[in-house]
Write a structure and sequence with these properties.
- There is one protein chain.
- With about 425 residues, the chain is α/β, with parallel strands linked by helices.
- The relative contact order is 0.11.
- It folds into 2 domains: about 250 residues, Rossmann fold (3-Layer(aba) Sandwich); about 170 residues, Glycogen Phosphorylase B (Rossmann fold, 3-Layer(aba) Sandwich).
- Helix 2 crosses helix 17 and helix 13 crosses helix 16.
- The protein has 17 helices and 15 strands.
- It starts with a helix and ends with a helix.
Length: about 425
């Protein structure tokens, strides 16, 4: 039994947790969610966050976090471009960058267990992590640009390039990703979790591991001789205080929206289903408020199509939380036609605030909404016009609002996730010592 094991027997000292994420550069939903949950985790554990990229925007969001943050002294710039993709240069550069970070080896040596968050460059830290250190890999989604084609399609769903070219470009990276995951799972005390039961099944598909869909959030998967024998689930959550049931701090200006509208959240893209959401509104008299940005070309195309369909379209600039909340609270519904959404925070946010959630019955949306009557899950080719009508019925709205928030408070809060992660980390830590 080593010193780390001894000091936990009496529970006198807190667990030392090393959290690893390759980059916070994009500062999208996954990065923001991790910084949010770290506030809750730091109440329980002593945390060191290691990352290759932590830009000023992430530093601002991390203000007040009671954790240690380790990153390169000099800015890390990942290789990019077609040649880099073909040769897999990014993975090699990430391994080299991790090895050069001052203080990282000391942080690893003092850690009781590690939590790795999926991202380009995350798994490349593995050569530095010693055998005997429990590792939980939170694979929010297998890298979709490697394993699926949804990110290689134009807004209207057409392929950006022939499939064989895409497969050739990313062939080496795909092999590297699979090899890294398999090397992780050969370690005693390692575990892999999806952020939904949908992603749990995808992990099984892409990495040839078993999965038990009956596993609950945070329930460790079976092991064989200490080795991970399946994928578990650690679901995304929201900070419920960001979504109060009553209007709070919402006396703010927002871009003007005329008439009744629905809100969709996510970058204008095929994978987020923006094209289909817009088309579903034709003839309903409802406008679409889109939050999440997009390229100028895609915005122009979407505007042209909206005019042809006679649907009002309002593409929002970057919004503060209270501005977003105000727009959502005034909406007829929160809507998405996203393709294979790994988890989907937006239906949870809609339910928390008491707004009907209308989502395609696919991917993570199915598992988020199937146990609660707080909106509607619809087939992609279902009767969305009837659903929009149902959302404007006050009896429906009141009934769905009453059901939604308790569902969120019971399953998708910061505390619920921390409880689940605690069980997974303890399982990894104990089995790593066998």
């Amino acid at each position: 039994m080593n010193d780390n094991s001894r000091r936990h027997m009496g529970g006198a000292e807190r667990l030392k947790l090393l959290v690893v994420r390759g980059s916070f550069d994009s500062l999208g939903g996954a990065e923001r969610e991790l910084l949010t949950v770290l506030r809750e985790w730091s109440k329980r554990w002593d945390i060191t966050l290691a990352t290759l990229q932590f830009p000023p925007s992430a530093q601002k969001l991390a203000e007040g976090l009671d954790i240690e943050i380790i990153s390169p002294e000099n800015e890390y710039v990942a290789p990019s471009g077609a040649i880099s993709e073909i040769l897999g240069k990014e993975s090699k550069a990430a391994r080299k960058a991790w090895a050069g970070i001052s203080g990282l080896r000391q942080a690893i040596a003092s850690a009781d267990v590690a939590h790795l968050s999926v991202c380009r460059g995350t798994l490349e830290i593995l050569p530095l992590l010693p055998e005997g250190l429990g590792i939980h890999y939170h694979c929010l989604e297998p890298p979709r640009w490697l394993h699926e084609d949804v990110l290689h399609r134009n807004l209207d769903g057409t392929l950006k390039r022939p499939a064989w070219i895409t497969n050739f470009l990313f062939r080496k990276q795909k092999k590297t990703d699979i090899a890294l995951v398999k090397s992780l799972l050969k370690r005693k005390g390692a575990a892999i979790s999806g952020n939904s039961h949908w992603i749990q099944s995808q992990l099984s598909k892409y990495y040839s591991i078993t999965h038990d869909p009956s596993l609950e959030n945070g329930q460790p998967a079976p092991r064989k001789d200490g080795l991970c024998a399946g994928a578990s689930v650690l679901m995304h959550v929201v900070d419920i205080s960001d979504w109060p049931s009553e209007a709070f701090d919402e006396d703010v200006e927002t871009p003007e929206v005329n008439g009744k509208y629905v809100v969709t959240v996510g970058r204008i893209s095929h994978v987020k289903g923006t094209w289909e959401t817009l088309h579903s509104l034709a003839g309903t008299g409802l406008s679409l408020v889109q939050v999440g940005g997009g390229s100028d070309a895609d915005k122009a195309l979407l505007n042209d199509v909206a005019k042809r369909l006679g649907v009002g379209l309002f593409c929002m600039p970057r919004l503060e939380q209270n501005q977003l909340r105000k727009l959502v609270r005034g909406a007829i519904a929160m809507v998405s036609h996203a393709h294979g959404e790994p988890f989907g925070l937006t239906p949870i946010e809609a339910m928390a605030i008491g707004i009907p959630a209308l989502f395609v019955d696919e991917g993570g949306f199915h598992y988020t909404m199937k146990d609660v009557d707080s909106g509607m899950l619809l087939a992609r080719d279902g009767d969305w016009k009837a659903a929009y009508q149902a959302c404007q019925n006050e009896d429906n709205r009141n009934k769905w609002a009453l059901a939604g928030r308790p569902h969120v408070e019971g399953k998708f809060t910061l505390e619920v996730q921390a409880d689940g992660l605690e069980k997974l980390l303890e399982d990894c830590r104990l089995w790593s010592k066998t």
